Amino acid sequence: GRGLFTTGPIPDGDVLLQVPLQWVLRRGNLAWSEAPGFREDIAGLDEDEQLFVFLAVLRKYGLYSKWYSYARTLPMEEPNSTLTWDSAEIAALLGTSAHDQARS
User: Fold this and answer.
1) Which of 7, 46, 55, 85 matches a 20 to 30 Å C-alpha distance to 15?
2) C-beta atoms surrounding 38 within 10 Å
3) DSSP 101
4) How confident is the model at residue 11 (pLDDT cuts 50, 70, 90)?
5) Cα–chain-centroid distance for residue 89?
6) What's the CA gap between 43 and 28, in Å, rounded?
7) Burial grade of 93 (CB within 10 A; 0-12, 13-18, 19 or more)
8) Cα 26 to Cα 32, 54, 95, 103, distances in angstroms
9) Where are the beta strands (DSSP E) in 18-87?
């Protein structure tokens, strides 16, 4: 996974990480100039779907993109997480201690 940890207390107001906005990959602000052949193919997709396509395109074809190294670190398969389960799969946990956790 990705994350941060500390070996001691962090005082309120301390900055742990600063990332310049130009290095933040976010929905609605994708650099399609780095994957020009795909810009027309995303018509009708919502912003989340556009981000998925953008990352997949960069992973496959974006060797010269500033995002290429990052895209190559992303998992190839969908994670096995209750976040991706449909309601029937979560309902199957009803009566177990895992049900409430799966719903949160």
Assistant:
1) 55
2) 16
3) H
4) very high
5) 23
6) 13
7) middle
8) 12, 11, 38, 26
9) none
pTM exceeds 0.90: no
Within a 10 A sphere around the Cβ of 39, how many other Cβ atoms?
14
The predicted-structure confidence for 72-86, as pLDDT tens digits, reads as follows 888 877 767 777 788
Backbone angles phi, psi at 76, to 5 degrees: -80, -35
For the record, the structure tokens of 83 come out as 């976040």
Here the tokens at position 88 are 């029937």
Ranges of H-type helices in the chain: 47-61, 68-73, 87-91, 98-103
For residues 16 and 10, the answer to whether their CB atoms sit within 8 Å is yes
Amino acid at 87: S
Nearest Cα residue to 70 out of 52, 80, 55: 55
Average pLDDT taken over every residue of the chain: 82
Q: What is the DSSP letter of 66?
A: T
